[in-house]
């Protein structure tokens, strides 16, 4: 991991002991936390979900918690617009168990790396699968290449994690993850997990994908129990 000085962003929110990053801000990359079989299951889930939707531009998301799925220029809620049989074509109980296990492992890794109290770090919204490709943007949601700070963009985030389900240089070109400033790059590769504190100490963007398809999962954590979300139900 690489240490960075924490920004003052967290002071604009309530501070939660044993969780809020006020002293230790960093960026970590871990390989080997997630197995090839798990990656394959999650990637299949994402590809299956996209059969029922997909953005008309270059960025599509599927959020199993809220049910949001990109479709054309908008979003549908899979739990409202799809039949139960269609939902079961997207994911099985086993796939959801894989998702939960992987998420818990990443949670534990963040807790260890930052010395947190595990009971005080919660999953938050939005947590979602993403597919990015080189299709020209149709709406702002497709413009994934802009620099941003997750805590400012999404509010509740304190720790952001990213799980990559495809590999830069073989499944797709472009699409590197870049921390702005000194331009430190994380090359997406299958099973790689990157996590970092979500404040202004870690502004970042994704380079435009020039060919192929980039699959990832954004898994977000908060220290605020009021912002906690539950595992998806099946
Ligand atoms: O997919 C990525 O590598 C980064 C996505 C991202 O920055 C975000 O979801 O906030
Ligand atoms: Fe981000």
TrEMBL record:
It comes from the Eukaryota. GO terms for cellular component: membrane. It comes from Ciona savignyi. PANTHER family: 2-OXOGLUTARATE AND IRON-DEPENDENT OXYGENASE DOMAIN-CONTAINING PROTEIN 3, PROLYL HYDROXYLASE-RELATED. Signal peptide: none annotated. Keywords: Dioxygenase, Iron, Metal-binding, Oxidoreductase. Residues 123-225 form the Fe2OG dioxygenase domain. Its cofactor is L-ascorbate. It holds the Pfam family 2OG-FeII_Oxy_3. GO terms for molecular function: dioxygenase activity; iron ion binding; L-ascorbic acid binding; oxidoreductase activity, acting on paired donors, with incorporation or reduction of molecular oxygen. InterPro entries: OGFOD3, Oxoglu/Fe-dep_dioxygenase_dom, Pro_4_hyd_alph, Pro_4_hyd_alph_FE2OG_OXY. This is Fe2OG dioxygenase domain-containing protein.
């Amino acid at each position: 991991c690489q240490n960075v000085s924490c920004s003052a962003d967290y002071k604009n929110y309530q501070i939660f002991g044993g969780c809020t990053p006020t002293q230790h801000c960093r960026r970590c990359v871990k390989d080997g936390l997630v197995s090839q079989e798990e990656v394959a299951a999650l990637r299949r889930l994402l590809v299956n979900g996209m059969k029922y939707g997909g953005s008309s531009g270059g960025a599509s998301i599927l959020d199993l918690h809220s049910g949001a799925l990109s479709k054309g220029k908008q979003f549908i809620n899979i739990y409202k617009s799809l039949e139960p049989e269609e939902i079961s074509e997207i994911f099985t109980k086993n796939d959801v168990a894989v998702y939960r296990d992987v998420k818990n492992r990443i949670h534990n890794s963040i807790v260890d790396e930052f010395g947190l109290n595990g009971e005080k770090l919660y999953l938050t919204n939005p947590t979602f699968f993403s597919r990015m490709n080189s299709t020209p943007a149709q709406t702002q949601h497709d413009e994934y290449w802009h620099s941003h700070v997750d805590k400012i963009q999404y509010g509740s985030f304190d720790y952001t994690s990213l799980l990559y389900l495809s590999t830069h240089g073989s499944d797709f070109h472009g699409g590197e993850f870049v921390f702005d400033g000194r331009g430190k790059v994380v090359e997406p590769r299958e099973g790689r997990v990157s996590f970092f504190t979500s404040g202004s100490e870690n502004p970042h963007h994704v380079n435009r994908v020039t060919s192929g398809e980039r699959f990832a999962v954004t898994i977000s954590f908060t220290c605020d129990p009021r912002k906690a979300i539950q595992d998806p139900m099946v």
